[in-house]
Amino acid sequence: MILRAWLLAAVGVAAADEGWSFWSSLRLVSGFLGLDHLREKKQRRAQLAIIGAGFSRTGTKSMETALSQLGYQIYDMRSMLQLGHVEGWLEAAQTWRRGNSTALEKMLQTVEELGYTATLDLPMNLLAPALAEIRPSAKVVMTVRPLEEWLESWANVNEVMSCLVVRPWRWLVDLNFNQQMLKVLYDFHWPYPEYPEHVRRPLPWFEIVTSLPGFEPSMREEWLQLHRRLQQDLEPMGRRVLVFDVRQGWPVLAEFLEVPIPEGDFPRTNSIAGMRLARRVLDVLAAALPLWVPLALWLLWVLMLQLCCCFLRLIPRMNLARRIWKWKHPKAKTK
């Protein structure tokens, strides 16, 4: 409740300043914290039809918008957080690596029962080969962009949203599962910032990342190799896989999905501006952490006071006693 009140106030100010719509900004921030209930509204049961294999910053947000226009329900990292599925997917990945797909099939059934028909983005893309094996009828779309360009953009986003892996946000949402999924499925070590080597702590409850060990020059080739390795894992699936650059637009995607080409241009959704806005909001909330409780109590007091005032104003107009008497004596006649 306190967090929601702060989000409403802080996002509203920032959104107005940046020209972003209030609700779009609110939902973006809420999604990172697992609070976007509207986005994860339960749908009718459906079978997984699209498996997204592209990494973040390869056009996955444009793909999300495009697939939503085509009627697909998207499941991604925000869905995992909102629905509390993180531990389930970690267990599924671990058992699948040991040759047992039971837990993975169970998690997939859970997702399908909620009506999701497409998966996208990290870390779900890491499971693309496994999901494609379990659902042979599903098509796989791997969004791509020039590798060097992708890595630079991926590093920039991690720098912008690095606040989520330090205090106070890591107390609320644990994003270590991305790190764990990479280790389990591809034996890839993604070092997170640690205090005090990579993190500054201006306040006991507020930390700022000063450097990203996961994107130092020594890690550059490892990220590129990871990208290539996932793409190679999908090659044996042949025509089931579309390696797609969103700049190719609707014709290529629509032909692959065997649907009519929609009217209008292909979506071009670049969420880096939204992430910068989210970062500003999260920093304001984090720095003001000790004010949350007194602010919430003050807001509650103001609300109760307003309700009492409204009620007192209504009493003289309602002729309350007469209405109560009529209710108790419905057959009585009044002069």
From TrEMBL:
What InterPro entries does the record point to?
A: P-loop_NTPase, Sulfotransfer_4
One matching Pfam family: Sulfotransfer_4
Keyword Transmembrane assigned: yes
**Which superkingdom heads the taxonomic lineage of this protein's source?**
Eukaryota
Transmembrane stretches in the record are: 291-315
The alphabetized UniProt keywords are:
Membrane, Signal, Transmembrane, Transmembrane helix
Signal peptide range = 1-16
Stored Gene3D superfamilies: P-loop containing nucleotide triphosphate hydrolases
Read off the PANTHER family from this record: P-LOOP CONTAINING NUCLEOSIDE TRIPHOSPHATE HYDROLASE PROTEIN (PTHR36978:SF4), P-LOOP CONTAINING NUCLEOTIDE TRIPHOSPHATE HYDROLASE (PTHR36978)
According to UniProt, the name of this protein is: Uncharacterized protein
| Naturally occurring in which organism (per UniProt) | Effrenium voratum
